[in-house]
Amino acid sequence: MISPQQVVDQMMQDDLFSQWLGIEVLDIQEGYSKVRMNVRPEMINGLGIVHGGIAFSFADSAFAFACNNRNNLSVALDTSINFLKPTHVGDILVAEAMEIHNGRSTGLYEILIKNQHDILVAKFKGTCFRTGRKIIE
Fold this sequence. Notes:
Elements: H1 4-14, H2 16-21, E1 24-29, E2 32-38, H3 52-68, E3 74-83, E4 92-102, E5 106-114, E6 120-130
Antiparallel strand pairs: 1-2, 2-4, 3-6, 4-5, 5-6
């Protein structure tokens, strides 16, 4: 039996973008993931805050780890994000992806991003489509 952690380890090995973001996997359980990253200077937009694409991508990685970790290759079907507070260079962000619905062909997830002060800075929602293919044979 392949564990959720083995699936995420395999995904991270091949996920160069999550590696570039500096994502560290903190916890993996079926339908759940918790990840952390440090905000670096190259992640800042022209207004001096984290570019929205960075926060979105960070949440999207947490989403991918949560919805794929049962070894059923799942892809994003619909996603959205709400930015609640700005984040800055030096901030440490934690994203926690929680499964709301685990269906045969779709899954629904909520991802909360908090900073080092445990302040909610963004809320991401994602629906995935389950392909039925395995990530690890």
